[in-house]
Amino acid sequence: MDNKSNKEPVAEMNMIIQVNKEYLEDFTAEIKELLEDTELELVNLQMDPENKDCINSIYCNFNAIKSLSGLINNPLCNKIAVLTEELINNVRKDKVIVTRNIINVVLDSVNIIKKICTEKADNIHITSEVEAHLQALSISNESLLKEIGYCEHENDGVVNQRKTPLDNSILREKTADAQDIIKSIRMQKIRNNQNNDQYVKIPLERLDQIIDMIQSVEKIYNSVKNEAALRFGSNDSLTVESTKSYYLINDVKSILKELRMVTFQQAFQRLTRSVCSFIEEKQLEVKFSTMGENVEVDKELADKIAAPLGDLIKLILDKADINVKDSRINNIEVLAYENNGLIHIDIISDMALNPEELKRESQYIEAIEKLNYLNCRAQLNLDAEGGIILSITSST
Protein backbone atom coordinates (compact mmCIF):
# COMPACT_ATOMS: atom_id res chain seq x y z
CA MET A 1 0.00 0.00 0.00
CA ASP A 2 2.81 2.37 0.89
CA ASN A 3 4.57 1.73 -2.42
CA LYS A 4 1.36 2.38 -4.31
CA SER A 5 0.69 5.62 -2.44
CA ASN A 6 4.28 6.76 -3.12
CA LYS A 7 3.96 6.09 -6.84
CA GLU A 8 0.73 8.07 -7.23
CA PRO A 9 2.26 11.51 -6.37
CA VAL A 10 5.17 10.77 -8.74
CA ALA A 11 2.76 9.92 -11.56
CA GLU A 12 0.73 13.05 -10.86
CA MET A 13 3.89 15.18 -10.84
CA ASN A 14 4.99 13.73 -14.21
CA MET A 15 1.56 14.49 -15.64
CA ILE A 16 1.73 18.10 -14.38
CA ILE A 17 5.21 18.53 -15.91
CA GLN A 18 3.95 17.19 -19.26
CA VAL A 19 0.90 19.49 -19.23
CA ASN A 20 3.05 22.51 -18.33
CA LYS A 21 5.46 21.63 -21.15
CA GLU A 22 2.57 21.62 -23.64
CA TYR A 23 1.38 24.99 -22.33
CA LEU A 24 4.88 26.45 -22.66
CA GLU A 25 5.11 25.20 -26.25
CA ASP A 26 1.75 26.83 -27.02
CA PHE A 27 2.83 30.14 -25.46
CA THR A 28 6.11 30.08 -27.43
CA ALA A 29 4.19 29.39 -30.65
CA GLU A 30 1.92 32.37 -29.86
CA ILE A 31 4.99 34.61 -29.43
CA LYS A 32 6.40 33.51 -32.80
CA GLU A 33 3.09 34.26 -34.54
CA LEU A 34 2.99 37.71 -32.95
CA LEU A 35 6.55 38.35 -34.16
CA GLU A 36 5.62 37.38 -37.72
CA ASP A 37 2.65 39.74 -37.60
CA THR A 38 4.92 42.51 -36.25
CA GLU A 39 7.34 42.05 -39.15
CA LEU A 40 4.48 42.57 -41.58
CA GLU A 41 3.30 45.68 -39.77
CA LEU A 42 6.84 47.10 -39.84
CA VAL A 43 6.94 46.68 -43.61
CA ASN A 44 3.63 48.55 -43.90
CA LEU A 45 4.84 51.17 -41.43
CA GLN A 46 7.94 51.83 -43.48
CA MET A 47 5.72 52.62 -46.46
CA ASP A 48 3.38 54.76 -44.33
CA PRO A 49 5.16 56.05 -41.16
CA GLU A 50 2.00 57.75 -39.87
CA ASN A 51 -0.24 54.68 -40.08
CA LYS A 52 -1.98 54.58 -36.67
CA ASP A 53 -3.36 51.07 -37.21
CA CYS A 54 0.13 49.66 -37.76
CA ILE A 55 1.54 51.46 -34.71
CA ASN A 56 -1.32 50.28 -32.49
CA SER A 57 -1.00 46.73 -33.77
CA ILE A 58 2.76 46.63 -33.04
CA TYR A 59 2.12 48.05 -29.57
CA CYS A 60 -0.55 45.40 -28.84
CA ASN A 61 1.75 42.64 -30.14
CA PHE A 62 4.59 43.59 -27.79
CA ASN A 63 2.14 44.00 -24.93
CA ALA A 64 1.01 40.41 -25.55
CA ILE A 65 4.62 39.20 -25.92
CA LYS A 66 5.45 40.84 -22.59
CA SER A 67 2.69 38.85 -20.89
CA LEU A 68 3.50 35.59 -22.68
CA SER A 69 7.22 35.87 -21.87
CA GLY A 70 6.21 36.08 -18.20
CA LEU A 71 4.15 32.92 -18.60
CA ILE A 72 7.12 30.98 -20.03
CA ASN A 73 9.48 32.50 -17.43
CA ASN A 74 11.83 34.08 -20.00
CA PRO A 75 13.31 37.24 -18.44
CA LEU A 76 15.44 38.20 -21.48
CA CYS A 77 12.44 38.14 -23.80
CA ASN A 78 10.38 40.01 -21.21
CA LYS A 79 12.89 42.83 -20.78
CA ILE A 80 13.08 43.42 -24.54
CA ALA A 81 9.28 43.35 -24.85
CA VAL A 82 8.86 45.84 -21.98
CA LEU A 83 11.29 48.40 -23.42
CA THR A 84 10.04 47.97 -27.00
CA GLU A 85 6.43 48.36 -25.87
CA GLU A 86 7.47 51.52 -24.01
CA LEU A 87 9.15 52.91 -27.14
CA ILE A 88 6.11 52.22 -29.34
CA ASN A 89 3.79 53.61 -26.68
CA ASN A 90 5.74 56.88 -26.63
CA VAL A 91 5.41 57.05 -30.42
CA ARG A 92 1.73 56.17 -30.22
CA LYS A 93 0.54 58.54 -27.52
CA ASP A 94 2.59 61.55 -28.67
CA LYS A 95 1.84 61.04 -32.39
CA VAL A 96 5.51 61.05 -33.39
CA ILE A 97 6.36 60.22 -37.00
CA VAL A 98 8.14 56.85 -37.05
CA THR A 99 11.72 57.17 -38.28
CA ARG A 100 13.86 54.49 -39.91
CA ASN A 101 15.93 54.23 -36.72
CA ILE A 102 12.84 53.37 -34.67
CA ILE A 103 11.76 50.75 -37.23
CA ASN A 104 15.24 49.20 -37.20
CA VAL A 105 15.35 49.07 -33.38
CA VAL A 106 11.92 47.40 -33.23
CA LEU A 107 12.96 44.96 -35.98
CA ASP A 108 16.07 44.11 -33.94
CA SER A 109 13.76 43.36 -30.99
CA VAL A 110 11.77 40.96 -33.19
CA ASN A 111 14.90 39.17 -34.45
CA ILE A 112 16.49 38.82 -31.00
CA ILE A 113 13.28 37.50 -29.40
CA LYS A 114 13.09 34.95 -32.23
CA LYS A 115 16.62 33.82 -31.36
CA ILE A 116 15.75 33.58 -27.67
CA CYS A 117 12.70 31.42 -28.47
CA THR A 118 14.68 29.02 -30.69
CA GLU A 119 18.06 28.84 -28.90
CA LYS A 120 19.16 28.26 -25.33
CA ALA A 121 18.54 31.29 -23.13
CA ASP A 122 21.85 30.81 -21.28
CA ASN A 123 23.83 31.20 -24.51
CA ILE A 124 26.56 33.76 -23.76
CA HIS A 125 26.35 35.27 -27.25
CA ILE A 126 22.59 35.80 -26.94
CA THR A 127 22.95 37.31 -23.46
CA SER A 128 25.53 39.84 -24.64
CA GLU A 129 23.44 40.63 -27.73
CA VAL A 130 20.39 41.23 -25.51
CA GLU A 131 22.33 43.53 -23.19
CA ALA A 132 23.58 45.61 -26.13
CA HIS A 133 20.07 45.78 -27.56
CA LEU A 134 18.52 46.79 -24.23
CA GLN A 135 21.00 49.66 -24.10
CA ALA A 136 20.06 50.66 -27.66
CA LEU A 137 16.36 50.58 -26.72
CA SER A 138 17.01 52.76 -23.65
CA ILE A 139 18.93 55.28 -25.76
CA SER A 140 16.13 55.35 -28.35
CA ASN A 141 13.55 55.91 -25.62
CA GLU A 142 15.57 58.70 -24.02
CA SER A 143 16.14 60.39 -27.39
CA LEU A 144 12.45 60.18 -28.18
CA LEU A 145 11.45 61.59 -24.79
CA LYS A 146 13.84 64.50 -25.25
CA GLU A 147 12.44 65.09 -28.71
CA ILE A 148 8.87 65.34 -27.46
CA GLY A 149 9.93 67.59 -24.58
CA TYR A 150 9.48 65.34 -21.59
CA CYS A 151 11.50 66.07 -18.46
CA GLU A 152 13.58 63.38 -16.88
CA HIS A 153 11.71 63.40 -13.55
CA GLU A 154 8.41 62.73 -15.32
CA ASN A 155 9.72 59.32 -16.28
CA ASP A 156 10.82 58.23 -12.80
CA GLY A 157 7.62 56.26 -12.46
CA VAL A 158 8.33 54.45 -15.73
CA VAL A 159 11.89 53.64 -14.65
CA ASN A 160 10.72 52.32 -11.29
CA GLN A 161 8.03 50.29 -12.98
CA ARG A 162 10.66 48.82 -15.28
CA LYS A 163 12.50 47.46 -12.24
CA THR A 164 9.44 45.48 -11.20
CA PRO A 165 10.05 41.74 -11.70
CA LEU A 166 7.62 41.40 -14.61
CA ASP A 167 9.39 38.25 -15.70
CA ASN A 168 8.06 36.23 -12.75
CA SER A 169 6.40 33.13 -14.11
CA ILE A 170 2.64 33.29 -13.63
CA LEU A 171 2.46 29.55 -14.12
CA ARG A 172 5.00 28.95 -11.37
CA GLU A 173 3.29 31.33 -8.95
CA LYS A 174 -0.14 29.79 -9.69
CA THR A 175 -1.65 33.27 -10.18
CA ALA A 176 -3.48 32.26 -13.35
CA ASP A 177 -5.09 29.20 -14.86
CA ALA A 178 -3.06 28.36 -17.97
CA GLN A 179 -5.99 26.60 -19.66
CA ASP A 180 -8.16 29.71 -19.35
CA ILE A 181 -5.36 31.87 -20.73
CA ILE A 182 -4.89 29.55 -23.73
CA LYS A 183 -8.62 29.72 -24.46
CA SER A 184 -8.69 33.51 -24.21
CA ILE A 185 -5.68 33.90 -26.47
CA ARG A 186 -7.11 31.60 -29.13
CA MET A 187 -10.47 33.31 -29.06
CA GLN A 188 -8.98 36.71 -29.79
CA LYS A 189 -9.87 38.16 -33.16
CA ILE A 190 -7.06 38.40 -35.63
CA ARG A 191 -7.02 41.92 -37.02
CA ASN A 192 -8.30 41.85 -40.57
CA ASN A 193 -9.04 44.90 -42.70
CA GLN A 194 -11.58 43.15 -44.89
CA ASN A 195 -13.92 41.35 -42.48
CA ASN A 196 -14.65 40.66 -38.82
CA ASP A 197 -14.55 36.87 -38.94
CA GLN A 198 -12.96 34.96 -36.08
CA TYR A 199 -10.18 32.46 -36.63
CA VAL A 200 -8.73 29.60 -34.64
CA LYS A 201 -4.93 29.55 -34.79
CA ILE A 202 -3.32 26.10 -34.92
CA PRO A 203 0.48 25.65 -34.75
CA LEU A 204 1.80 24.09 -37.95
CA GLU A 205 3.40 21.26 -35.97
CA ARG A 206 0.00 20.29 -34.54
CA LEU A 207 -1.57 20.43 -38.01
CA ASP A 208 1.12 18.04 -39.31
CA GLN A 209 0.34 15.66 -36.43
CA ILE A 210 -3.35 15.68 -37.39
CA ILE A 211 -2.45 15.03 -41.06
CA ASP A 212 -0.25 12.08 -40.03
CA MET A 213 -3.11 10.60 -37.97
CA ILE A 214 -5.56 11.05 -40.85
CA GLN A 215 -3.12 9.34 -43.23
CA SER A 216 -2.84 6.39 -40.83
CA VAL A 217 -6.63 6.10 -40.63
CA GLU A 218 -6.80 6.39 -44.42
CA LYS A 219 -4.43 3.42 -44.82
CA ILE A 220 -6.50 1.35 -42.38
CA TYR A 221 -9.76 2.08 -44.22
CA ASN A 222 -8.09 1.35 -47.54
CA SER A 223 -7.13 -2.10 -46.23
CA VAL A 224 -10.64 -2.66 -44.83
CA LYS A 225 -12.18 -1.59 -48.16
CA ASN A 226 -9.98 -3.97 -50.16
CA GLU A 227 -10.48 -6.87 -47.73
CA ALA A 228 -14.26 -6.39 -47.74
CA ALA A 229 -14.31 -6.38 -51.54
CA LEU A 230 -12.33 -9.65 -51.65
CA ARG A 231 -14.46 -11.41 -49.06
CA PHE A 232 -17.96 -10.14 -49.75
CA GLY A 233 -17.83 -8.60 -53.21
CA SER A 234 -17.97 -4.99 -54.38
CA ASN A 235 -21.76 -4.71 -53.92
CA ASP A 236 -21.81 -5.77 -50.28
CA SER A 237 -22.98 -3.09 -47.82
CA LEU A 238 -19.75 -3.33 -45.77
CA THR A 239 -17.65 -2.79 -48.90
CA VAL A 240 -19.80 0.15 -50.02
CA GLU A 241 -19.71 1.88 -46.60
CA SER A 242 -15.97 1.23 -46.22
CA THR A 243 -15.37 2.79 -49.64
CA LYS A 244 -17.45 5.85 -48.70
CA SER A 245 -15.52 6.23 -45.44
CA TYR A 246 -12.19 5.90 -47.26
CA TYR A 247 -13.02 8.73 -49.69
CA LEU A 248 -14.41 10.94 -46.90
CA ILE A 249 -11.16 10.54 -44.97
CA ASN A 250 -9.22 11.28 -48.15
CA ASP A 251 -11.21 14.51 -48.56
CA VAL A 252 -10.48 15.52 -44.95
CA LYS A 253 -6.76 14.91 -45.57
CA SER A 254 -6.88 17.11 -48.68
CA ILE A 255 -8.58 19.90 -46.75
CA LEU A 256 -6.00 19.73 -43.94
CA LYS A 257 -3.14 19.84 -46.46
CA GLU A 258 -4.75 22.88 -48.05
CA LEU A 259 -4.56 24.62 -44.64
CA ARG A 260 -0.77 24.44 -44.93
CA MET A 261 -0.91 26.54 -48.08
CA VAL A 262 -0.25 30.29 -47.85
CA THR A 263 0.60 33.00 -50.37
CA PHE A 264 3.98 34.62 -50.98
CA GLN A 265 2.61 37.96 -49.72
CA GLN A 266 4.36 38.03 -46.34
CA ALA A 267 7.59 36.60 -47.74
CA PHE A 268 7.69 39.19 -50.54
CA GLN A 269 6.97 42.03 -48.11
CA ARG A 270 9.92 40.98 -45.94
CA LEU A 271 12.05 40.58 -49.06
CA THR A 272 11.07 44.06 -50.33
CA ARG A 273 12.00 45.70 -47.04
CA SER A 274 15.38 43.94 -46.91
CA VAL A 275 16.34 44.64 -50.53
CA CYS A 276 15.12 48.26 -50.53
CA SER A 277 17.14 48.96 -47.38
CA PHE A 278 20.22 47.50 -49.09
CA ILE A 279 19.63 49.62 -52.22
CA GLU A 280 19.26 52.73 -50.09
CA GLU A 281 22.40 52.01 -48.07
CA LYS A 282 24.48 51.44 -51.23
CA GLN A 283 22.85 54.49 -52.93
CA LEU A 284 22.08 52.47 -56.06
CA GLU A 285 19.84 53.65 -58.88
CA VAL A 286 17.86 50.42 -59.00
CA LYS A 287 14.13 49.77 -59.04
CA PHE A 288 13.03 46.62 -57.22
CA SER A 289 9.63 44.99 -57.70
CA THR A 290 7.80 41.72 -57.08
CA MET A 291 4.98 39.92 -58.88
CA GLY A 292 3.01 36.80 -58.01
CA GLU A 293 2.36 37.52 -54.32
CA ASN A 294 -0.91 35.54 -54.50
CA VAL A 295 0.71 32.28 -55.63
CA GLU A 296 0.05 29.64 -52.94
CA VAL A 297 2.81 27.44 -51.54
CA ASP A 298 3.50 25.33 -48.47
CA LYS A 299 3.84 27.51 -45.37
CA GLU A 300 7.34 26.25 -44.55
CA LEU A 301 8.60 27.31 -47.99
CA ALA A 302 6.88 30.71 -47.76
CA ASP A 303 8.36 31.35 -44.30
CA LYS A 304 11.94 30.46 -45.24
CA ILE A 305 12.30 31.48 -48.90
CA ALA A 306 12.78 35.22 -48.24
CA ALA A 307 16.24 34.82 -46.65
CA PRO A 308 18.02 33.01 -49.54
CA LEU A 309 16.22 35.15 -52.14
CA GLY A 310 17.38 38.29 -50.33
CA ASP A 311 20.97 37.00 -50.16
CA LEU A 312 21.00 36.26 -53.90
CA ILE A 313 19.53 39.64 -54.86
CA LYS A 314 21.97 41.54 -52.65
CA LEU A 315 24.84 39.57 -54.18
CA ILE A 316 23.61 40.41 -57.69
CA LEU A 317 23.37 44.09 -56.77
CA ASP A 318 26.81 44.00 -55.19
CA LYS A 319 28.52 42.31 -58.14
CA ALA A 320 26.58 43.90 -61.02
CA ASP A 321 28.31 46.39 -63.30
CA ILE A 322 26.26 49.49 -62.50
CA ASN A 323 27.48 52.61 -64.23
CA VAL A 324 27.00 55.50 -61.79
CA LYS A 325 27.37 58.08 -64.56
CA ASP A 326 24.59 56.46 -66.53
CA SER A 327 21.28 58.18 -65.77
CA ARG A 328 19.32 55.03 -66.64
CA ILE A 329 17.63 53.30 -63.68
CA ASN A 330 18.35 49.58 -63.55
CA ASN A 331 15.64 47.06 -62.72
CA ILE A 332 15.50 43.84 -60.74
CA GLU A 333 12.28 41.87 -60.40
CA VAL A 334 11.12 38.76 -58.55
CA LEU A 335 8.37 36.89 -60.38
CA ALA A 336 6.51 33.92 -58.84
CA TYR A 337 4.14 31.66 -60.80
CA GLU A 338 2.84 28.09 -60.98
CA ASN A 339 3.26 25.85 -63.99
CA ASN A 340 2.40 22.14 -64.29
CA GLY A 341 2.18 21.72 -60.53
CA LEU A 342 5.59 23.33 -59.94
CA ILE A 343 6.28 26.65 -58.25
CA HIS A 344 8.68 28.92 -60.14
CA ILE A 345 10.44 32.02 -58.81
CA ASP A 346 12.47 34.03 -61.32
CA ILE A 347 14.92 36.76 -60.35
CA ILE A 348 15.19 38.93 -63.46
CA SER A 349 17.78 41.71 -63.75
CA ASP A 350 18.82 43.97 -66.65
CA MET A 351 22.23 44.62 -65.05
CA ALA A 352 25.40 43.27 -66.68
CA LEU A 353 26.90 40.39 -64.74
CA ASN A 354 29.23 37.43 -65.28
CA PRO A 355 27.25 34.30 -64.27
CA GLU A 356 30.34 32.11 -63.79
CA GLU A 357 31.95 34.58 -61.40
CA LEU A 358 28.70 34.85 -59.47
CA LYS A 359 28.49 31.06 -59.04
CA ARG A 360 31.96 31.00 -57.45
CA GLU A 361 30.97 33.44 -54.70
CA SER A 362 30.63 31.86 -51.24
CA GLN A 363 27.37 33.84 -50.61
CA TYR A 364 25.90 32.32 -53.78
CA ILE A 365 26.87 28.79 -52.73
CA GLU A 366 25.38 29.27 -49.24
CA ALA A 367 22.12 30.65 -50.66
CA ILE A 368 21.82 27.73 -53.09
CA GLU A 369 22.37 25.30 -50.19
CA LYS A 370 19.50 26.96 -48.28
CA LEU A 371 17.29 26.59 -51.38
CA ASN A 372 18.27 22.92 -51.76
CA TYR A 373 17.21 22.36 -48.14
CA LEU A 374 13.78 23.73 -49.15
CA ASN A 375 13.64 21.27 -52.09
CA CYS A 376 14.34 24.02 -54.60
CA ARG A 377 16.74 23.93 -57.53
CA ALA A 378 18.25 26.98 -59.20
CA GLN A 379 19.52 27.73 -62.69
CA LEU A 380 21.39 30.90 -63.70
CA ASN A 381 21.26 32.11 -67.32
CA LEU A 382 21.86 35.21 -69.43
CA ASP A 383 18.96 36.71 -71.37
CA ALA A 384 19.15 38.00 -74.95
CA GLU A 385 19.93 41.56 -73.84
CA GLY A 386 22.80 40.67 -71.50
CA GLY A 387 20.83 40.67 -68.27
CA ILE A 388 20.49 37.63 -66.01
CA ILE A 389 17.64 35.31 -65.09
CA LEU A 390 17.98 33.18 -61.97
CA SER A 391 15.21 30.56 -62.17
CA ILE A 392 14.25 28.76 -58.96
CA THR A 393 11.89 25.78 -59.08
CA SER A 394 10.16 24.09 -56.15
CA SER A 395 8.15 20.90 -56.18
CA THR A 396 6.58 21.57 -52.74
Provide an overview of this structure.
The protein is α+β, with helices and mostly antiparallel strands and 396 residues long. The protein folds into three domains: 2-186, HPT domain (Four Helix Bundle (Hemerythrin (Met), subunit A), Up-down Bundle), CATH 1.20.120.160; 204-259; 262-394, Heat Shock Protein 90. Helices cover 65% and strands 11% of the residues. It contains 15 helices and seven strands. The chain has helices spanning 2-47, 52-71, 75-94, 100-118, 124-147, 156-162, 170-173, 178-186, 204-232, 237-259, 265-282, 299-304, 306-319, 355-360, 362-373; strands at residues 261-263, 286-291, 296-298, 330-339, 342-349, 376-382, 388-394. The strands form two sheets. It has a five-stranded mixed beta sheet with strand order 2-4-5-7-6. A two-stranded antiparallel sheet has the order 1-3. Helix 3 runs parallel beside helix 5. It is globular, with a radius of gyration of 26 Å. Mean pLDDT is 77; it is low at 150-178 and 180-195.
User: What's the mean pLDDT score?
Assistant: 77
Determine the CATH topology of the largest domain. Four Helix Bundle (Hemerythrin (Met), subunit A)
Work out the number of β strands. Answer: 7
Radius of gyration: 26 Å
Residue fraction in strands: 5-15%
- Output the number of helix runs: 15
> Which percent bin holds the helix content?
55-70%
- Unreliable parts: 150-178, 180-195
Determine the N-to-C terminus distance.
57 Å
Shape: globular
Helix and strand sequence: HHHHHHHHHHEHEEHHEEHHEE
> Which structural class best describes the helix and strand composition?
alpha+beta
How many structural domains can be distinguished in the coordinates? 3
**CATH first level of the largest domain:** Mainly Alpha
**Which CATH architecture of the largest domain is right?**
Up-down Bundle
Name the CATH superfamily assignment of the largest domain: HPT domain
Task: Characterize the biggest β-sheet.
Answer: 5 strands, mixed
Instruction: Report strand order across the widest sheet.
Output: 2-4-5-7-6
